[in-house]
Specification:
A hairpin with a 2-residue loop joins β1 and β2. The strands form three sheets. Strands 1-2 form a two-stranded antiparallel sheet. Strands 3-4 form a two-stranded parallel sheet. Strands 5-6 form a two-stranded antiparallel sheet. 52% of the residues lie in helices and 11% in strands. α1 crosses α2 and α2 packs across α3. It contains six helices and six strands. The longest helix has 45 residues. It has two domains: 108 residues, no CATH class; 58 residues, DNA Binding (I), subunit A. Bound molecules: zinc ion. The site of zinc ion (ZN) has 7 residues, from β6.
Length: 209
């Protein structure tokens, strides 16, 4: 992966992004100095017939190109197969797109595209995180043993709360309620159990879930 000397990669919100074109494909472009060298090396080929010994021909061109790049202080960041492709394409008259062309024409669009790609990825990650969290919560609730409140705790709570709803004080449809739900780590002891009437209990359930 080429990162240094590589305008194709952008850093946004701590993420490296490869520049994409309008079809979402990575933008293929090369530094201007490199394209200049390629043009220079291939200039001598103009008007010549198609090379007969293609292997030694491409080796020579690669050597010449590498020498020229080195003499101009351009870091050799291309591997042989990339150079070979570009040399053969140049022989057919197809040159790589220059960075300056892309940067000049579509700089604002490119920046937006990069930001969009990063934000979209972050969004997708957030969604994934929430879904995993929901699954894990569900598992935890299912795994929580539904032990009944012991008889002596019920007795104690009933007497402590005087047979009334701890919220509204009414005496009808009373239920034993876990102040902190068992699924969230609450215990079956009197400190965590209270008397609630049915409607206060439902109202509390709606807030918690
Ligand atoms: Zn109540």
């Amino acid at each position: 992966m080429r990162l240094s000397h590589e305008p194709k990669y952008w850093l946004y919100r701590n993420r490296f992004v490869l520049e994409l074109d309008e079809d979402g494909e990575p933008v293929e472009s090369e530094p201007d100095e490199f394209v200049d060298c390629l043009v220079e090396v291939m200039a001598v080929e103009k008007g010549k017939p198609w090379p007969s010994d293609s292997f030694s021909w491409e080796q020579e061109r690669i050597e010449t190109l590498n020498k020229l790049l080195t003499s101009r202080g351009i870091p050799l960041q291309w591997d042989r197969s990339e150079l070979r492709d570009m040399i053969w394409n140049a022989r057919r008259g197809i040159l790589p797109t220059r960075h300056c062309v892309l940067a000049g024409h579509r700089s604002e669009e490119l920046v937006l595209r990069v930001k969009h790609a990063v934000l979209r990825e972050e969004n997708a990650l957030d969604k994934l995180r929430r879904e995993v969290e929901a699954f894990e919560n569900f598992e935890r609730i299912r795994a929580t043993p539904r032990e009944p409140i012991p008889e002596h705790v019920r007795m104690f709570v009933w007497q402590r709360d005087r047979g009334r709803c701890a919220k509204c004080g009414c005496q009808e449809r009373l239920e034993f309620d876990h102040i902190i739900p068992l699924a969230k780590g609450g215990s079956n002891t009197e400190r965590n159990v209270q008397l609630l009437c049915e409607s206060c209990n439902r109202a509390k359930g709606a807030i918690i879930s």
